[in-house]
């Protein structure tokens, strides 16, 4: 067995019809990692709130590892307007959130939808308006803690979604 370098690794490059909506994600490290994870999973676009840190922030630049220029991204000012516009354009809006109506992520059939917006909320308050979501999904957990870092959750969700769509 030999550990491969980045230059020796060949990925199956592909884009998926998935966008990420970052609702009040403001921590520079989380924003940078969002880009890195999104690029790794072939995501089309990221929406960031206008109050999120500037993408030239040193911590964002370091954690994104040069993926900011590889992912289309847009800033928005009003969460509700953005979500309603996505829905108007035929996008299924799915929140990664623990609700009384969440479906376990592995039980949700992503294959029946042509465009998906995955909404992730702030670690403190979650998604600001869950009533706008078409669906909510949750990652089953088995410890005492009921949540994990937003970017860890995002990575798990994108793995499951892209695995189903592959």
From TrEMBL:
<dbReference type="GO" id="GO:0032259">
    <property type="term" value="P:methylation"/>
</dbReference>
<keyword id="KW-0489">Methyltransferase</keyword>
<dbReference type="InterPro" id="IPR029026">
    <property type="entry name" value="tRNA_m1G_MTases_N"/>
</dbReference>
<dbReference type="InterPro" id="IPR004441">
    <property type="entry name" value="rRNA_MeTrfase_TrmH"/>
</dbReference>
<dbReference type="GO" id="GO:0008168">
    <property type="term" value="F:methyltransferase activity"/>
</dbReference>
<dbReference type="InterPro" id="IPR001537">
    <property type="entry name" value="SpoU_MeTrfase"/>
</dbReference>
<dbReference type="InterPro" id="IPR029028">
    <property type="entry name" value="Alpha/beta_knot_MTases"/>
</dbReference>
<keyword id="KW-0808">Transferase</keyword>
<dbReference type="Pfam" id="PF00588">
    <property type="entry name" value="SpoU_methylase"/>
</dbReference>
<feature type="domain" description="tRNA/rRNA methyltransferase SpoU type">
    <location>
        <begin position="18"/>
        <end position="159"/>
    </location>
</feature>
<protein>
    <submittedName>
        <fullName>TrmH family RNA methyltransferase</fullName>
    </submittedName>
</protein>
């Amino acid at each position: 067995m030999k550990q491969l370098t980045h230059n020796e690794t060949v990925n199956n490059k592909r884009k998926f019809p998935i966008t990420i909506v970052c609702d009040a994600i403001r921590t520079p490290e989380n924003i940078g990692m969002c880009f890195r994870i999104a690029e790794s999973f072939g995501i089309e676009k990221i929406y960031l709130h206008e109050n999120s840190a500037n993408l030239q922030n040193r911590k964002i630049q370091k954690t994104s590892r040069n993926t900011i220029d590889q992912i289309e991204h847009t800033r928005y000012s009003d969460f509700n307007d953005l979500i309603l516009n996505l829905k108007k354009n035929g996008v299924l809006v799915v929140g990664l959130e623990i609700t009384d109506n969440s479906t376990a992520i592995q039980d949700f059939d992503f294959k029946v939808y042509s465009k998906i917006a995955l909404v992730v909320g702030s670690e403190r308050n979650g998604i600001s308006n869950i009533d706008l979501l078409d669906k909510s999904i949750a990652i089953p957990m088995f410890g005492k803690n009921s949540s994990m870092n937003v970017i860890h959750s995002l990575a798990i969700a994108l793995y499951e979604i892209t695995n189903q769509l592959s």
